[in-house]
Amino acid sequence: MNRFLQSLVVLCLVLVAALVILSAYIRLDHAGLGCADWPACYGRIGTLETHPAGHSTADTVSAYQQLANEKQAPKDWAMTAHRTIASLLGLSVIALTFTAVARRRKRAPVLIPLLLLGLTVFLAVLGNWSGGLHRPAVVLGNLIGGFGMLILLWLLHLRQRRYSGGGYATPHTLRAWIRFGVLLLCAQILLGSLTSANFAALACTSFPDCYGNWLPGPAIAKAFDILRVLPVNAAGVVSGGAETQAIHMAHRLGAWLTFLTLGWIALQAIRAGGIYRDSGFTVLVLLLAEISIGVAAVLSSLPIALATAHNALAALLLLSLLSLRHKTLTAALGDSWV
Fold first, then answer.
1. Are 260 and 266 in contact (CB under 8 A)?
2. Is residue 332 packed enough to be buried (19+ CB in 10 Å), middle (13-18) or exposed (0-12)?
3. pTM > 0.90: yes or no
4. Does residue 73 surpass a pLDDT of 60?
5. What is the mean pLDDT of residues 119-135?
6. Domain limits of the chain?
7. Phi and psi at residue 213, to the nearest 5°
C-alpha cells in the first residue's frame, strides 16, 4: 500500500473514531442523559407524529420544542463538530476509494474502500431518515454502520503491519478462540446497541440481579423487533414494558460471558509471549476497564460521561482484538492471507 493511501486510511480512521464517540454522546444526550432532572428525563424524546387527545398538533410541536430548549446538555458544539467531521470523512472516503481504484494494478486494496464508500452513503441517507430515536432500526443502523466503518478502516491499517512470528509458534486453539472472541464481542456490542435503542439502560438499577430476576424472559422478543416505532406517552417519554428489562439482562449476561472469554484469550496470548504479549495485555486492560465502567454506570444511574466512555472502550476493545487476530494469522499464514 502506497504512502498516500496509508495517510488517507489513517486520516479516515481518526475521523471515524471521533465520529463514533461524538455520535454516542449526541445520541445519549438526546435520549435524556445528563439533563437537569436526571434520571426522570431519561427517554424523554417527545413525538411529532401523534399528540394527546384534546391537544392540537401545533400545541404538541410547541411543547416538544420547549422540551428541547429545557435540556441543558451542550449539544450545539457537538452537533457542529459532528457535521464538520462527517463532511470531512465523506470527502476523505471518496478520495480513498478513487485512489485505491486508480492504483488497483499495484495491489492496492479495492474491495474494502468500496465497502467504506457504500457505508458512507448508507449512513448519510440514514441520517436524514425521519423518526430518529423513535425507531430502533435507525439507531441500530447508525451504530452498526459506525462500527462497521471503524472495523474496515482498522483492517486496512493492519495491512501495513507484517509479523514474522518472532520464532514463537501460534497455538491453533488460540487462533480459533480469537475468532470466536471477535464474533462474541460483536454480538455483545449488538446487544448493547439494542439496549440503547430500547431505552433500557435504566431498566435494571439493581446489581447483579434485575429486581430479583436473573434471566431475560420471553419479553425479549419484542426488544428484537427493530422495525416498530417506540411508544411515547403524553409527556413525551418512551413507555417501554417488560422488554426493556429483558434486553438489559441479556446485555448483562452477555457482558459476563464476553468478559470470561476475552479474559481467557488475553491470558493465553500473554502466555504465548513474543508478538502476542503486548496485544494480550492491551485486551486485558481494556476488558477490565470496560466491565468496571459498565458496573459503575449501573450503580451510579448511568451518567453521560460513563455511558460515552462505555461506547468508546467497546470500540477500542474490538480493535485490539482484531490486532491480536491479525498477528496470529500473519505469523501463521504469511502475508498472502491479506
1. no
2. middle
3. no
4. no
5. 79
6. 1-34+73-160, 167-338
7. -100, 145
